[in-house]
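PROTEIN DESIGN WORKSHEET
SECTION A - STRUCTURE
LENGTH: 454
TOKENS:
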């Protein structure tokens, strides 16, 4: 017999989704019996609905387990197999924000991503997390090690070697065909240290203060420093005073996805005081990676709902194109573009979509004359580490296939994603040799700004 969902309204809520704070410091949060009771309740609701079958692989995994059982109901699925669903969830939040009709304030109170997060946290507390996964999510330590000049060359060469990649797959479970990020010893922090400081703040608007402190992010610092360069160049071209936050640690998103919530708290204790002080000094905060912005806008406020500094940073941090669009809305964005961009296939990352900003990147790039931007609102399947793991890589590429197909059908001059990792995932599916171009790079090209940082 199936475990029935709570009695009550069967229609979905028409109200905007609300989010409850994450009660992660309560010992009952890690009670495995209570966890499985809630997993059973929510899985059965999902089984009766099935609207989210086209998102990530967590839902097809759940539905296949049910359909293959003797009863073809959830009661036919072994409890140990519940973990398969958890392992395929990478906390993109798309089910919560775009599909599920039973999220709060609906009485059924379904928060699938945060339930998966709770399960991951229980698994981590039990010591059942693989060493590989701990290593992949330790982005600061890996970046510092791989950023040593001699090590950088060796790591990048190894990542490009098919022979060494096959060996790495056997030893560490990192798929030989997955794209691994390139590392730079000449980090964004080093490059920014060689650039002249900008002057006074631009004229403030109702939403922006015209002074921006860049939270470089571990990926932006070690793996893609050119994105930060382009961001600084574009903002300075618009008269916006810029600086880097004097220090940072990883935002905590990789550890959140691992279920290591204590590590998330340690990252918060390192980052929030620095960023809150910048806000007090009159700076807005911008970060170039959508998942990092989401971490400060949503996840940390839900983990620390009573921390006033967390709330302060939440209210002052922006996606780069969100910031530029706000400036344009009040007539403060320069539109003296010198170069057309042509046809752009623009992938909208999930961690940007769930911020409910609208398509600000497309909005700003559309200001460039002679440019045609088509948005692709589908998941790339990357999720930081999901796509590089041997057991998930093929699934991740299947999730990305609709995005790849749309890019191929468009034959664009450029394809782009605000998430640099998603961009490389798309490149991996295209197999054409054409790499992604970040939207900030496209905007710099449109302005005709030469790179000043070397």
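SECTION B - SEQUENCE
RESIDUE ASSIGNMENT:
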């Amino acid at each position: 017999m199936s475990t029935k969902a709570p009695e009550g309204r069967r229609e979905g809520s028409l109200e905007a989704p609300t989010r409850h704070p994450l009660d992660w410091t309560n010992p009952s949060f890690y009670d495995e019996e209570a966890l499985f009771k809630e997993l059973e309740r929510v899985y059965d609701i999902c089984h009766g609905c099935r609207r989210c079958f086209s998102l990530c692989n967590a839902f097809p995994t759940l539905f296949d387990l049910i359909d293959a059982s003797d009863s073809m109901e959830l009661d036919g699925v072994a409890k140990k197999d519940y973990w398969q669903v958890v392992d395929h969830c990478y906390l993109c939040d798309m089910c919560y924000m775009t599909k599920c009709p039973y999220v709060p304030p609906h009485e059924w109170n379904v928060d699938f991503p945060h339930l998966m997060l709770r399960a991951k946290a229980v698994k981590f507390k039990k010591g059942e997390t693989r060493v590989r996964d701990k290593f992949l999510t330790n982005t600061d330590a890996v970046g510092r090690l791989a950023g040593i000049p001699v090590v950088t060359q060796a790591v990048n060469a190894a990542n490009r070697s098919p022979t060494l990649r096959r060996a790495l797959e056997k030893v560490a479970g990192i798929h030989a065909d997955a794209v691994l990020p390139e590392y730079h010893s000449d980090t964004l922090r080093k490059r920014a240290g060689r650039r002249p400081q900008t002057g006074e703040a631009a004229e403030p608007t109702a939403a922006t203060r015209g002074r921006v402190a860049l939270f470089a992010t571990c990926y932006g610092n070690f793996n893609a420093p050119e994105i930060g360069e382009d961001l600084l160049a574009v903002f300075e071209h618009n008269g916006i005073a810029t600086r880097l936050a004097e220090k940072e640690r990883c935002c905590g998103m990789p550890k959140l996805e691992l279920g290591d919530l204590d590590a998330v708290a340690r990252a918060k204790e390192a980052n929030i005081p620095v960023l809150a002080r910048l806000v007090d000094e009159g700076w807005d905060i911008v970060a170039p990676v959508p998942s990092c912005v989401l971490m400060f806008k949503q996840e940390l406020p839900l983990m620390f709902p009573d921390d006033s500094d967390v709330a302060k940073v939440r209210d002052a941090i922006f996606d780069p194109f969100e910031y530029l669009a706000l400036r344009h809305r009040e007539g403060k964005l320069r539109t003296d573009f010198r170069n057309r961009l042509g046809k752009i296939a623009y992938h909208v990352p999930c961690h940007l979509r769930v911020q409910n900003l609208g398509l600000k990147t497309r909005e700003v790039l559309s200001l460039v004359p002679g440019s045609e931007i088509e948005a692709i609102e589908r998941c790339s399947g990357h999720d930081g580490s999901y796509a590089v793991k041997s057991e998930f890589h093929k699934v991740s590429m299947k999730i990305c296939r609709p995005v790849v197909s749309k890019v191929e059908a468009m034959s664009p001059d450029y394809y782009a994603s605000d998430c640099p990792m998603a961009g490389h995932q798309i490149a991996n599916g295209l197999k054409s040799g054409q790499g992604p171009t970040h939207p900030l790079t496209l905007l710099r090209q449109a302005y005709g700004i030469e790179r000043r940082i070397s």
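SECTION C - NOTES
The first strand starts at residue 211 and ends at 214.
Residues 27-125 form one domain.
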